[in-house]
Each structure stands twice: as structure tokens, then as C-alpha cells.
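tool_call: predict_structure(chain=1)
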Amino acid sequence: MSQANRFTSTDHYIATPDLLLAVNAAITLQRPLLIKGEPGTGKTLLAEEIARNLNAPLISWHIKSTTKAQQGLYEYDAVSRLRDGQLGDARVNDISNYIVRGKLWEAFESEQRAILLIDEIDKADIEFPNDLLRELDRMTFDVYETRQTITALHRPIIIITSNNEKELPDAFLRRCFFHYIRFPDKDTMRQIVAVHFPNLHEELLAEALELFYALRDLPGLKKKPSTSELIDWLKLLLADQVAPSALKTGDGLPPMSGALLKNEQDVSLFERLVKMVRARQHH
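tool_result:
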């Protein structure tokens, strides 16, 4: 693989060696890269970083529960055509005026090889991934209304993310190169934080990470705080010039805890933990 086609870690995105291997393997195999991992671990950011790193255009297709595979190819806007027909608009004579190009079409027609992000594929219904298989395999599809065949000028690098909300079909999984982004350990997290806050006071960082990982390890926590929430929390701590000592457990909820704890059950669980810690300290 030429250097121009190799994804490398950069100053503003910390990619672990196994993630770099996965990205470059998918590029070599010309298969979609399926990235899983808990929310907030930088899956979407990865596609943006690959595009920047390889100096390629990024085309993002954000999937919702109502998204259909056909929308990625194109949609025929029959309603507009009917309305224009009633108004006597000459545009109705050319059906191509009512074909709305989808994200796959955009990626296929890109002059330069594009990065196509299919974000949160698990949000769509179970048929969605299978409905895309043929087009992603063959890199071509037909526009029935205009009798056109759209074929990719360059095979895009396809990044597909999933939050594991539902299982994906086996036939789809077979065609992907898979990578699970593990939650960063403390050392990797320090590198990630350094990208965002290069001059962060070491003592504040140490206390913040201690508290953050203690929270994540709390049994019974409904929603574990993520990397992006840690970054938000540190931004607030810095803005308010919070002293490292204020982060020690035993003093109630940590400052700006709303950045980390996102529901009342987790807040009360943490408060109970603090009371237990206090009780132990008094004995």
C-alpha cells in the first residue's frame, strides 16, 4: 500500500496500533470497515480523521430509524413533479429533474476517491444493511426512472459505525472488516486529553481521571461516562478554575457532575457511594 493510502495517527487524533491496522487492512481489502464501540469513543471522528489524513472528501450519511437503503442511492420526487405538472412547468418533461441523488451516488461520482461514512447503521431497520449489500459489493446501481447505470469512478473507502443497538445480519458482517474500539485505558486517555488540553495541570488531570474511572467502574451505573463527556467535563473544570482538591470523593457530587452523570439513578448511586466512603473515613 502506498504511503498516500496509509492512515496514520496524527497530532489531533490518537489512534491505537490495532485501530490503525484495522483501517489500513480495510483499505487494502477494499472492504467496508465496520467500527463498533460504546457511544463517545470517537467512531464518527475516525472517518473525519481518515478523510483529513488521506486528503480525501468526506461524505457522511447519518442513519435514523426511518432511513431506507434506497435513500442512499437516490429518491424520485414524484410529488414535486405532480405539482409542477399542475402548474404547467416545462421541467416535468425531463424526469431527471426529479431524481434526488443520495450519499452513495455522491461518493460514486466523486472525482477523487471519497471517504463514505455510514453512521450508526444499527439505528435503521434490520433489512437496511442487507438492502445495501449488492451496491456496496458491485459499486454500481441502476436508476430505473432514467434508465441510467451509475458506476463508481473510484471505490470509496467505506466506514460504517454501530453502537450495537441491534445485531447486524451475518451476510452483511461477512463483507466487512470489523474492529471494536475498546474503551481507552488511562495512558491512552492521557494522550487523548493532551490533544484537547495540552497545558492541563498534572494534578488536576490525575484527580479527574481517578474520579472518571472510579465512576465508570461503579457497579449498577446505567450510563457510563464516555471519552467525549470527560473532555466536556475537563473544559468546564478549566473554565471555572476548579482546584484539584475539589475532585476528591467524600465531598459529595463532583463539580459540574452533570457533564458525567446523565440520569437521576446514577446521581443517587454516586451519592450513596460518597456516603459509604465518608462513613469509612470516620471509623
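agent: Residues 64 and 123 are 6 Å apart (CA to CA). Proceeding to next step.
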